[in-house]
Design goal:
Chain A: Its EC number is 3.1.3.16. The complex is a heterodimer of chains A (726) and B (164). Chain A starts with 18 loop residues before the first helix and ends in a 22-residue tail after the last helix. Chain A is built from 25 helices and 18 strands. Chain A is α/β, with parallel strands linked by helices and 726 residues long. The longest helix of chain B is centred in the N-terminal third of the chain and has 26 residues. Classes of the chains: A alpha/beta (726), B mainly alpha (164). At the A-B interface, helix 1 and helix 20 of A face helix 1, helix 2, helix 5, helix 7 and helix 8 of B.
């Protein structure tokens, strides 16, 4: 054809188009296509990250709820009082605190019908490899052996210092892995590519072994087994998810109960006492520091080395009733330095504030000795007041757990200022994130730890003559990422973390030259067969579903915001105003104008009919017309918190709570959230779940009812363990 | 009066465009300091709806780079340039039929498809050549595995649907 078209872009004389120009045209077009995919990929990533962090922010709301309870709620009956104290205490039914008796494995009988692996102690390499094989066959380790393994692990960990010292001269190369989060496939892949731990192959696992993924139990068993078999070569750091309070929310508690049912409770209790003994950091050749989260401007390795780390069973503490101590506590929880706080009433405190950075070496030793002594005294006081008998070897009762136990019982037990300083050292190590700007500020997104700048990194490295800080805690698209002038390395080992195809995992190897070598991987066959476009689409779908749910959960606030831009009440707003309004409500810091095409599908002349758009969002949720819409929104917005609360109430971990408890939870929650909720409203809610378990509510079912329908990936469905008498 | 209204409407349009540009820019602003790596500018410009060739991109970059190139582009330089580009509707996307004709030009035998080798040759040797990565990625979606050819008409249709 010989027509020539003259368009705005200068597509002139097409008839004379040579192959050169044709090629340029195609290449131009294609490059634009790829650029748009790249933009979509980045936006999807941002969505996942901001939702993940805002979920962690929920933890703060949960604390607010508990402190609200403690401050405002006066139980009107002993039943209510019991209910509240059950929410706030860790364990009620166990009076005997001796761990051996508490979590004994002797009484857990291994039946002949059990076909899984058997362990004998001391563990041998064969046991470890047998466990790997068994888990590949989807078998489950019997509770008896799990408990025994946990006891032995704890015994071993107790001998370790807070900061593990490792040298590269013994085993030439050290492999460092980041977050695994229950992804057994990734661990298998790492062992496959890199080899099993052995005297020639050292490993450091940098925390967050559990939660989110569905095989946290298996990962722990494998890591602990290798730890016992090769104690000199395998090193574990504690992560922020090695914490039973976090596990309640993020799935590990649920996994243990589902897999171990009757014995699950023992296992969970035991785990609390294993997690708290995990070392806080690993130091390679005195030059490379490995911690899970990061550091802060207050981080002091010398102080850290002296802390009694096992005292901090959970780093998420409840608030105390007293006005003064609540003030102190909220400051500490927000990650601020304890300096400048009023000295507590206890008389044994010196006048000067705790400034580890300023004190000289000699007096620091004295200080830490004094700290230990005072904390011990406080512990004793708490214990006596609660009526615990002083049994020898009763050192396991931690400061934190005793405080939470006594909070509702008595009002005068205060944690010492020094132990709050220690608490901050640990929280900073496990929860902090690096930031590009200089300085150090509280990490309000996570609700704990700090954001630390390149100057903070530089100071720490110089102060202790280090050359590199390796940490994990944040998912990275390529599995690893440098920052702070390559002085900080983030290593993340859970591939496909958000969704299949979302990111690679990686591990890093260090030889005696301490030059990092990376290996990346993606543990899912499907991811490899998809084209770039398909991979991005899949992850994108997942991200946008989560985002739409979030939008739905804020329907009423959004309507208010939209109306603000619709003064003439036309029922429409411009797309630009839509973007501004949405950000003002959700505070996710997302590029809404870039995301708009995926979220808003029908516009007329650049205007959006916002009411029908919100209806469209609502359609995706299962229809529950008989439940008032504000309540529905609340459930969606607080589902994580509700789940955590239910799990805490469900002290026997059965998955069921009574209708009365359900009712009470809702009454408290709705008064805290300022929602009008009648008794009828609650009954309607209960009726929406089909339950006939003699007055009990399966709260898993309840929560499932308020989830968007998720498309299941066949790869993700973990095969149920064979029932082999466990 | 009418002029005032028009003026206000025009301002609103410009403000809207500037917000769009800023949003796109911020996606790549990893250090949150209003700068992006120069290598990402092409992606940003293209995702805002423009379809420049590599040499046109080069010219645009020259306008926003610092006198002594630092490897970073600042938003304050990028914004006015990009606003102008969008206002003037430069580098518009290529219409489907033009794209089709470009493929037809390469299809010497006019048989409705290109062989894999032909496509590779044109894309990596002519025009503004692809990198190996770009080539591989295009092939993964464009080549019909059974015939080992690129049925370009279908390919274009598929890609266009994807975008929308």
């Amino acid at each position: 054809c010989g027509t020539s078209t003259k368009g705005q872009n200068g597509f002139v004389h097409l008839s004379a188009l040579g192959t050169f120009k044709a090629a340029v045209l195609i290449q131009r077009w294609y490059r634009r296509y790829v650029a748009r995919l790249e933009m979509r990929r980045r936006c999807t990533w941002r969505i996942f990250q901001s939702i993940e962090y805002s979920c962690e922010q929920d933890q703060i709301k949960l604390h607010n709820f508990f402190s609200y309870l403690m401050d405002h709620f006066t139980p009107s009956s002993s039943k209510e009082r019991d209910f509240i104290s059950r929410m706030l205490t860790e364990e009620e039914s166990y009076k005997d605190t001796e761990l051996e008796k508490l979590c004994d494995y002797e009484s857990v009988e291994v039946l002949d019908s059990y076909t899984g692996p058997h362990l004998s102690f001391p563990l041998l390499p064969d046991h470890a490899t047998a466990l790997l094989e068994a888990f590949k066959q989807k078998q489950q380790l019997h509770a008896h052996y799990v408990l025994k393994l946990l006891h032995e692990t704890r015994r071993h960990l107790m001998q370790l210092p807070n900061i593990n010292h490792v040298s590269t001269c013994y085993s030439e190369e050290i492999t460092i892995c980041g977050d695994l989060h229950g992804r057994l496939d990734d661990l298998f892949l790492i062992f496959y590519k890199n080899g099993l731990p052995s005297p020639e192959k050292s490993y450091v696992f940098n925390g967050d072994f559990v939660d989110r993924g569905k095989q946290s139990v298996e990962i722990l068993i494998i890591l602990f087994a290798f730890l016992l078999v090769y104690p000199k070569e395998v090193h574990l750091n504690r992560g922020n998810h090695e914490d039973h309070m976090v596990n309640l929310r993020y799935g590990f508690t649920k996994e243990v109960m589902q897999k171990y049912k009757v014995h699950g409770k023992k296992i969970l209790k035991m785990l609390q006492n294993v997690f708290c003994w995990l070392p806080l950091a690993t130091l390679i050749d005195q030059k490379v520091l490995i911690v899970h989260g990061g550091v802060s401007d207050m981080t002091d390795l010398e102080l850290l080395a002296k802390i009694q780390r096992h005292k901090f069973v959970s780093v998420l503490r409840g608030k105390k009733r007293k006005e003064k101590s609540r003030h102190m506590d909220s400051k500490v929880i927000n990650g601020e330095s304890p300096v400048g706080v009023d000295p507590p009433r206890s008389s044994s405190f010196p006048g000067s504030c705790l400034q580890p950075g300023l004190a000289s070496m000699a007096s620091r030793t004295e200080l830490s000795q004094w700290v230990r002594q005072t904390v011990e005294e406080e512990l004793e006081k708490c214990r006596r007041q609660v009526g615990f008998s002083e049994t020898p070897g009763d050192k396991e009762l931690t400061c934190v757990s005793s405080v939470t136990m006594t909070e509702s019982e008595l009002e005068s037990c205060e944690t010492s200022e020094s132990s709050q300083g220690e608490w901050k050292q640990i929280v900073d190590l496990l929860w902090s994130d690096p930031m590009p700007q200089e300085g150090c500020k509280m990490n309000t997104v996570r609700g704990g730890g700090c954001y630390f700048g390149p100057d903070v990194t530089e100071n720490i490295l110089q102060k202790h003559s280090l050359q590199l800080l390796i940490r994990s805690h944040e998912c990275k698209q390529e599995g690893y990422e440098f920052c702070h002038n390559r002085k900080v390395l983030t290593i993340f080992s859970a591939s496909n973390y958000y969704e299949i195809g979302s990111n690679r995992g990686a591990y890093v190897k260090l030889g005696p030259d301490l030059v990092p070598h990376f290996v990346q991987y993606q543990a899912n066959k499907t991811a490899h067969t998809l084209t770039l476009r398909q991979r991005i689409s899949r992850v994108e779908e997942s991200a946008f579903r989560a985002l739409r749910e979030k939008l739905f959960a804020h329907t009423s606030d959004l309507i208010c915001a939209f109306k603000g831009y619709d003064q003439e009440e036309t029922g429409t707003i411009t797309l630009s105003d839509w973007a501004t309004a949405v950000e003002s409500v959700l505070h996710l810091g997302l590029p809404w104008r870039m995301l708009r095409p995926q979220l808003v599908h029908s516009t007329a002349g650049g205007l959006l009919e916002y009411k029908s758009w919100l209806d469209y969002l609502a359609v995706e949720q299962r229809s529950k017309e008989h439940i008032q819409s504000s309540l529905l929104e609340t459930i969606y917005r607080n589902r994580s918190n509700l789940e955590t609360i239910f799990r805490i109430i469900d002290s026997d971990h059965s998955g069921l709570i009574s209708f009365e408890e359900f009712h009470q939870t809702w009454t408290l929650f709705s008064s805290h959230m300022n929602i009008e909720l009648t008794d009828d409203g609650i009954s309607d809610l209960a009726r929406s779940i089909d339950f006939n378990k003699d007055g009990n509510i399966d709260f898993n079912e309840f929560l499932e009812a308020f989830r968007l329908i998720e498309h299941t990936h066949c790869d993700d469905k973990a095969a149920l363990p064979t029932s082999d008498g466990c | 009066m009418a002029e005032e209204k028009e003026g206000a409407a025009a301002e609103a349009i410009i403000a809207d465009i500037q917000k769009k540009i800023t949003d796109a820019f911020e996606v790549f602003d990893h250090e949150c300091n209003k700068t992006v790596d120069v290598r990402e500018i092409g992606t940003i410009i293209r995702s805002l709806g423009c379809c420049p060739s590599e040499s046109e991109l080069h010219d645009l970059l020259a306008e926003v780079e610092e006198e002594e190139p630092t490897g970073y582009i600042r938003l304050e330089k990028f914004l006015p340039m990009m606003t102008k580009v969008l206002m003037e509707r430069r580098y518009r996307p290529i219409p489907e039929d033009i794209l089709l004709r470009a493929f037809e030009v390469l299809d010497e035998n006019k048989c409705g498809h290109l062989t894999k080798e032909e496509l590779v040759k044109y894309m990596t040797e002519e025009g503004e050549p692809f990198t190996q990565e770009e080539m591989e990625e295009m092939l993964s979606a464009a080549v019909d595995p059974e015939t080992n050819t690129v049925r370009y008409r279908d390919y274009i249709t598929m890609m266009v649907v994807d975008e929308n």
